[in-house]
Design goal:
Length: 188
């Protein structure tokens, strides 16, 4: 059975440089690093198959908007017969400081609509997550406006700097397991 790495984001150029697309950026980088040669529209997601050692891995970016991403994830889980514990979801997290990457097993959605959708569609929230810190919105700014705000200049550079770290974290989970990744990435 393959493993499934899902990066959360919103489709379309207007969302490219937003905090909410952290998962898409991580999956894109993993695809580049693992030489994903063919991406296809599959089960409502843009997906590519790669190998990590002897393990088949499906990289996926749901093509629905964030709050509907669970549909595509559920279809891929069914199509590839992936166990819940073999689904790794990469997402932005306002509860972590910018530049912080953490990994955890399961948990609630914390107000994240993508996680809410996935948990509802899978009937479980026990899947592993790689969390990319984006920090809290300033002042009274709405969280949705904050994560969908286009980034430029230094803010974009700071945001993009943590994408390779998150990709390394996903690779660590795939190669060494979730517990090892939690020790490695949650210690700092």
């Amino acid at each position: 059975m393959p493993r499934l790495v899902v990066g959360l984001g919103n489709p379309g150029p207007e969302y490219e440089n937003t905090r909410h697309n952290a998962g898409f950026l991580v999956v894109d980088l993993l695809g580049d690093n693992l030489r994903a040669s063919y991406w296809k529209d599959e089960a409502g997601s843009l997906a590519a198959r790669v190998k990590v050692g002897d393990v088949d891995v499906v990289l996926a970016k749901p093509l629905a908007f964030m709050n509907l991403s669970g549909r595509g994830v559920s279809k891929l889980v069914d199509a590839y017969e992936v166990a819940i514990e073999d689904v790794i979801v990469v997402h932005d997290d306002i509860d972590l400081a910018p530049g912080t990457v953490r990994v955890k097993r399961g948990g609630g959605h914390g107000g994240h609509n993508g996680l809410r959708s996935i948990s509802e569609m899978l009937g479980s929230d026990s899947y592993p997550r790689v969390r990319v810190g984006v920090g809290r919105p300033p002042g009274r700014m709405d969280a949705a406006d904050y994560v969908l705000q286009p980034l430029r200049g230094a803010a974009l550079e700071e945001f993009e700097a943590q994408i390779p770290v998150a990709a390394q974290c996903v690779m660590h989970v795939l190669e060494h397991g979730l517990d090892s990744a939690m020790q490695e990435f949650n210690a700092s």
